[in-house]
Amino acid sequence: MTSLDPTATPNQPAAESRSAGHLIVDSLVAHGVERAYVVPGESYLDVLDGLHNSSVETVVCRHEGGAAYMAEAEGKLNQLPGIAMVTRGPGAANAHVGLHTAWQDSTPMVLFVGLIPFEHRDREAFQEFEPKAWFESGAKRVMVLDHPERASEIVAEAMFAAMSGRPGPVVVGLPEDVLREQVHAPVHPIIPVATGGMTVTDWKALKDALLEAERPLFVFGGNDWSTEGAETFSTWLEEHHLAAAAEWRCEGLVPFSSPSYVGPIGYGRPKPTFDLLEETDLLVFVGTVPGDVITNGFDIRQNWDQKNFIITMDPSLRGRSGPVTHQIVSKPDTFVRDLVLMDLPVKPEWTAFTERMRAEQEAFAAPKEASTDNQPATMDAMMAHLVASLPLDSMVTFGAGEHTNWAHRYFPTEFYGSMISTRNGSMGYSVPSGVAASLNFPDRLVVTVAGDGEFLMNGQELATATQYGATPLVIVMDNQEYGTIRTHQERSYPHRISGTQLTNPDFALMAQAFGGYGARVETNDQIADALAESLRVIREEGRFALIHLVVQQRAKAY
């Protein structure tokens, strides 16, 4: 296979010769990528070689699912897509779970997958698979580098596609022989992403709707904000005494302590916020849509005379349920830029509505008194001690399971990006996301809340934490079962527990084996000391810490 050598012009000197694999790395550097999460493979050795002397930190993970989760979490934490690299066949299959998370959570992410040599294609070569057939239903784009001179162009296209419109995952296939080809192509310029914004018609329609409303509610969500945009949005809400609720697992965009924050809307929501969707006379969704979780399975807020404004860059409104009064095609930050120009009077009805719902939220989120008795350990007692010990800029990560309910309810999320989780309910996310958050924000306390079933899906990434100096505090709630599934089981098949029970190892000893601090806690009076020592180890020794919280299991009923 030959490569192009474009003719130099007075304004564009001939590019230096380099391999397509090295050009991919140079293009990632040009886009500002700081790290890539990888599981190595012989299929993309030339890219690994390009990373060797680059400014991109190569984070070597223990499983492709962990690498993909870390990249997805990084996409939530930053303005740029998270980057994962895996090998063909089995490696690509293992990484698929992270793609599904990025697709449903609207997270910008690029997955680079090494492929068999171009010349071996369609001959059932070792670990051969068809990337477009595998990934196209759950990725924004799937591209294969068949022409080495296009290596940088494809990186630019992939980064653009991941960030444009509704963000999401992109897959780039890299045939190993194409990567080694020498090319004289320059680094492709960054492709700017359109951010939309309110038209005059949009602006007037929203202003009129707000002025007519007595109980307006903003619902915020998505991963497409900046810290500045979130802060400006919160300030505007507070100035106008307007209420705002969080999409499921998007808490922190409006601070936990804000007088405008009235709670989460999602699975496990308190009844006051459950009722909110029907009670409000105007809903304004910013960065998200009224999907099945928010609407309780496409059940709430379905009357066509109800007013819903939806602000998203996705013109297709994928995942939307219920009536649409007006769509504004805009990224959240650009929408907020235009929103703050809207000087509205503070209506007494707004103040009364917001204060009532805020009082409900404060009562719901107040931690229970920290228990010091020697009764069996509880998550209520753990959260009471934890919340009292948290710095203001703390972050929390978690995956899926009943253990997440305590983090949703009590963890004080005070800024955008302080809660990193999965809205597709993917298990195994807690530890990888905690590692990624700690690497991105090494000066902040990152708390990872995991369940016993979830922890063993990717707990081995604590080895990655030790290798790269990540220092999350991991709390493993061990109730010896897949708790969420048992709850559903008890509801549908009472007294017939099947397929949900677990026998677990000592997670504290596992943490020590991985190079961290581990404490096993079985009673409430052990929590304070274990927590204090964990925080000391993180702060003074620079190691991760894990608390194995053994809680009572519900009585078995067979």
List key phrases describing it.
558 residues, alpha/beta, disordered N terminus
Verbal overview:
- This protein is an alpha/beta fold and 558 residues long.
- The protein contains 20 helices and 20 strands.
- The chain has helices at 20-30, 45-51, 64-77, 90-105, 131-135, 151-163, 176-179, 200-212, 227-239, 271-279, 332-339, 348-365, 379-389, 404-410, 430-440, 452-458, 462-468, 483-492, 507-513, 527-541, and strands spanning 18-19, 35-38, 57-60, 82-86, 109-115, 141-144, 169-175, 182-183, 216-220, 243-247, 261-265, 282-286, 308-312, 326-329, 395-398, 419-420, 446-451, 473-478, 517-521, 545-550.
- The strands form four sheets. Strands 3-2-4-5-7-6 form a six-stranded parallel beta sheet, sandwiched between helices. It has a six-stranded parallel beta sheet with strand order 11-10-9-12-13-14, sandwiched between helices. A six-stranded parallel beta sheet has the order 16-15-17-18-20-19, sandwiched between helices.
- Strand 4 (82-86), helix 4 (90-105) and strand 5 form a beta-alpha-beta unit.
- It is globular.
- The N and C termini lie far apart (65 Å).
- Residues 1-10 have low confidence and may be disordered.
